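Task 17 of the worksheet. Students: predict the tertiary structure of the chain below and write it out as structure tokens. Keep your answer in the requested format; marks are given for formatting as well as content.
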Amino acid sequence: MKKIKLFAAGIAVLLLASCGNRQMVASQDQASNPESNPLGTKIEVPCVDASMDDDEYFRALGTSRAINMQSARESALSAAQQMVRLRLGGFVQGFVNGYGGTTAGQTATDKVQRHLQNQMDVLVEKMVNDAQKVCEELYQDESDGNYNAFIAIQIPKGKLVDEMAGILSKDEELEIGFNEAQFREYARKRMEEMKKDAEEKGYR
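Model answer:
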């Protein structure tokens, strides 16, 4: 009977020691990895800091993975261009519509939209093709040889407004009484609204 009690006591001591060791290991792991949390491991994305809009630029980040290095780079650039193309397209359309409505009412807005649609589409494509690459990082996965590419590009907001002003000022069919000073003031206010909206949503 005494042997059984001693055996049980020994098992209890071992279990307590094991539990203590596990707690110690967990504490050591947490101390050595302060980033660990219930949500998982935080991933640092290359070029992300260079892909945030600011007062001067529209920016976008494209990523790609491919077995061929050049294919990975080309696909990442194409992804960045597509992202910024969509944003610029929406911005330009909303901007022109808002400006037309501000200067000459809804009738003029509809006319501006219809008349300038093709010209603005061409402008957006030109700006996307001329976008400056501001960051590029390339990694090769040792496990399978695939390449991971990250490319960030930027488009100057001031240049976009200049190009839009040039199109509006040279178009004689709009009949909206284009005023460049008024246009640029509207552009400045619109940019500030976009910035404020992005900050409220937690973006830069």
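Marker's comment: The longest strand covers residues 57-66. Confidence is low (pLDDT under 50) at residues 1-31.
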